[in-house]
Amino acid sequence: MLVGLAGIAAPFAAPAAAQSGPAVGFGDAQTTVAQGDVATIDLQLRNTDQATLRIRSADQKYQATLRVRDGDNDGMIRVRANTFRGIDRSDAGQFTAQSDADEVRLIAESKVTEASVLDTGRYNLIVSTAETSVAGVLTISEPVVTGSDVRAVAPNTPLAAAANGSSNESNRDEDITAARGDHVRTRFAVGGLGGILEAPTPAANLVYPDDSAPGVLTTHTVQTSPNKSISARSLTIDYGVDDGTPPKDVYHFSQSDIESIGIDETGDGYIDRSIGVAVQNIQTGTDGRITLSFDRPVTIPENHTFRLAYAMENPEAIGSQPVAVRIHGRQATHRDRGTVLYGPAGQGTLGYGVDLQLTAAGGDTPTGSLSGVETTYDADAGGLVATIDTSTFETGEYQVTLDISETAPDSVPRVSLHESFTVVEPDVTFTSNSASDDTRLSVTADTNLAPGSSVIVRVSADQPTGGISQVLNCVGTVEPDGSVDCEFDLSKSTSDFDIDVSMQRDGVIIAGPTDPN
């Protein structure tokens, strides 16, 4: 078996006479991944549902042994190996199966070095059963940065299709324009972030500290969304729940510490209805509780988000700490349990010193960081993708910024990248229709909606005498040049009708009704 390490074996290397017995192999004998990203190792199994995978660095300083099981008997297991270890992460989740049906279990692992990532270089792979084994290679390379770009795309556009949208190359001065309802997709081509982004983003926690360093004075932000409407009379934040470590000076909390408080009605992270004037009384205790009482009922509708930002000194703690929030009303009480993350893992909105921010013109930052942003790590493109649904945004200029600070692991590239875009109202111009003695009506329009957007063009045709009235719909798609073309068949010639045309997207009329002539 030692000879196998010197070369690359083909999948299912067993001789034909032995193919009735168990056989294992690799989908790709060579796998390459950026340091800090998640490697996907494709295993193939025949006549067996279990195998052992060994990972060995070339210098033998790192070794891991995994037991894998093909739970759905499809002959394939995709092992995800996270090369980012984290300073305060457990071993759980470092090796996982891509399919929920399969199983990957860590049997043994050598002590990882003080670094938070596996070293770059060659790692020998051996997949085996009791009867056979095959060798492969995993190469961990240094992460690279190639810039950023921003595009306006239609809703539900797959990541791979984003290149069809209008785009802006890295950090140019001109903005991308997005019609309200379009999605803005910003891609930061920075390798080595995939492992960090495997964990839930700190900004999505029940309580998020702007600076997660132990003992510092910073801003904590609470966000919770009741699943039914509630008329709130008080709010309690409990840092001491489940034996959590509360901020040591929590009992000093006062009304002057409140930076913003209110209701986010659209989910974009901004407070639409401030309730600061309703805060009547504040009670605190050494057990980690803060209770705000209101002098009037504060209505929080179903699925709207209550947001509260306030000054607070972090405790001398590292890692995830439990926290609970209770909104008490006259007839109902909303309870929410979650976490607040301190230390390196909680630094930045995405963790470990990686900070993604969306700001409006003039630097207006939402109270709820990243509430209007969906983040994905696109491993094939080697970068972070931030997708923003602009349907709830006010018109105006916005900026998406990725900052990786010195608190990030040494392996992560230090960058500060930004992309700008402008949200405008949807605009539609009906360019022509072919009203004639023919029953066929052709309607064309130009729009600023993103290419690929789906719209409904509606034609209302009424005879002036009141005899016939028709309403016809056409589902159209915005072409790359911004045009929309629809054909309609009327019951009589188009010249016999008074015709109005309108266009709508997602049930909202964005143009018309108007006479296209």
From TrEMBL:
Composition bias, kind Basic and acidic residues: at what positions? 170-180
Q: Where is this region: Disordered?
A: 159-180
| Pfam families xref list | DUF7827 (PF25162)
- Per the record, the domain of life is Archaea
Ranges of Low complexity composition bias in the record = 159-169
Q: Where is the signal peptide?
A: none
Q: Where is the DUF7827 domain?
A: 23-129
- Protein name as catalogued: DUF7827 domain-containing protein
Query: Which species does the entry assign this protein to?
Result: Halorubrum persicum
UniProt lineage: Archaea, Methanobacteriati, Methanobacteriota, Stenosarchaea group, Halobacteria
